[in-house]
């Protein structure tokens, strides 16, 4: 991969990121990937706790930080002090977007609420990511991604039916809220281009999760149907499951559409299955889901995984392995599309990480550098952007403001 700086679709947009941990910083990562100049504001001395997360022996450095802070410039600033608040407002004068994910009311306590920001920059877009949103009876509660996943309905339907609710192995609630926050930011910037007006983007974790739950609420409201935990399947969607192979692997097969099931039945050597009343339609296959899955599992268990996948792909049946990190690094499709890229890093030499998504044909995003050291860009931002002289910067640093 080339690390040559690419302008990107958001080139010329400056984002001040005042959040920490994941939801706010992931929104900043998405915007930085697409070319925005993201200036990350961190507390002096300690910085974002994400600098400490994901540490693995023997190197003792975070492997998460280089990704979530990539393409960002780091400055230190104490927002609890009046001098720091004034400096932040000066940064806002030069910005298009402010991203924050503090508990609602925190910016207001620091005299940095939207109305104050708007006084300095009428076109500013303030992006606020929180557990419960900026209003409502729960708004001031502490809200982590896991709580939002539970309240938004995802936790209840995740896992095996005979066990307590599970979780995905990722901070999916934070990431969903950040993704929705980014969509809202782009919409707000388009509105500002048309009208000159800024606004507030309010992205709540539980609502971002809720938005992913399809017709879950409507099913209960209309039919009294409660979705439950169903493990690797979706009820009444068949066949779509993981199936065993002769060499001890599993293969995921998704052939629930009528035409695709016909192709699967032919590949199994049982073309007549597609015409049998209990399997002929989506509804009847769903009604006989367990029996059909057992029949398919008997067939897949006679084949090694690779041979089975070749057979299914040739038949036009969607199927695949369940990938782990090692599979991603070795897969030819990943390699051809550069879905995972190696990026130079001053600590590790180079790091493999997910590439920028989505892909834009005319103004592609890029990974220009990995996560910076704490305050690495203080002189660049406070000196070049704000014009603070060297002695003033030194005095602010001595006082612990930056």
TrEMBL record:
UniProt xrefs under Pfam families: CoA_transf_3 (PF02515)
GO molecular function, one term: CoA-transferase activity
Stretches assigned to coiled coil: none
InterPro entries, per the entry: CoA-transferase_III_domain (IPR050483), CoA-Trfase_fam_III (IPR003673), CoA-Trfase_III_dom3_sf (IPR044855), CoA-Trfase_III_dom_1_sf (IPR023606)
Alphabetical keyword list: Transferase
Protein name: CoA transferase
């Amino acid at each position: 991969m080339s690390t040559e700086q690419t302008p990107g679709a958001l080139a010329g947009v400056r984002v001040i990121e005042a959040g920490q941990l994941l939801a706010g910083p992931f929104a900043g990562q998405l915007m930085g990937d697409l070319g925005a100049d993201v200036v990350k504001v961190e507390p002096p001395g300690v910085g974002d706790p994400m600098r400490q997360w994901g540490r693995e022996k023997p190197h003792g450095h975070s492997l998460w930080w280089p990704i979530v802070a990539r393409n960002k410039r780091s400055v230190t600033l104490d927002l609890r002090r009046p001098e720091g608040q004034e400096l932040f407002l000066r940064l806002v004068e030069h910005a298009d977007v402010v991203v924050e994910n503090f508990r609602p009311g925190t910016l207001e306590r620091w005299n940095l609420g939207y109305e104050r920001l708007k006084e300095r920059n009428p076109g500013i877009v303030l992006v606020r990511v929180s557990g419960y949103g900026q209003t409502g009876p729960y708004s001031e509660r502490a809200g982590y991604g896991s709580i939002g996943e539970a309240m938004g309905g995802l936790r209840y339907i995740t896992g095996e039916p005979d066990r307590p609710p599970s979780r995905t192995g990722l901070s999916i609630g934070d990431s969903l809220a950040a993704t929705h926050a980014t969509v809202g930011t782009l919409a707000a910037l388009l509105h500002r281009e048309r009208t000159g007006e800024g606004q507030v983007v309010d992205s709540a974790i539980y609502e971002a999760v809720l938005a992913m739950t399809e017709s879950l609420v409507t099913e209960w409201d209309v039919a009294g149907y409660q979705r439950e935990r169903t493990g690797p399947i979706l009820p009444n969607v068949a066949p779509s499951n993981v199936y065993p192979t002769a060499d001890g692997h599993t293969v995921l097969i998704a052939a629930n559409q009528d035409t695709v099931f016909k192709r699967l039945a032919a590949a199994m050597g049982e073309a007549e299955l597609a015409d049998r009343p209990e399997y002929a339609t989506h509804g009847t296959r769903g009604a006989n889901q367990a029996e059909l899955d057992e029949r398919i599992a008997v067939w897949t268990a006679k084949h090694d995984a690779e041979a089975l996948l070749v057979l299914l792909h040739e038949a036009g049946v969607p199927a695949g392995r369940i990938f782990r990190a090692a599979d991603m690094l070795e897969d030819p499709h990943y390699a051809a599309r550069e879905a995972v890229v190696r990026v130079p890093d001053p600590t590790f030499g180079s790091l493999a990480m997910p590439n920028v998504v989505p892909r834009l044909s005319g103004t592609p995003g890029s990974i220009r550098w990995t996560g910076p050291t704490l305050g690495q860009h203080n002189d660049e931002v406070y000196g070049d952007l704000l014009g603070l002289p060297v002695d003033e910067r030194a005095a602010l640093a001595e006082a612990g403001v930056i």
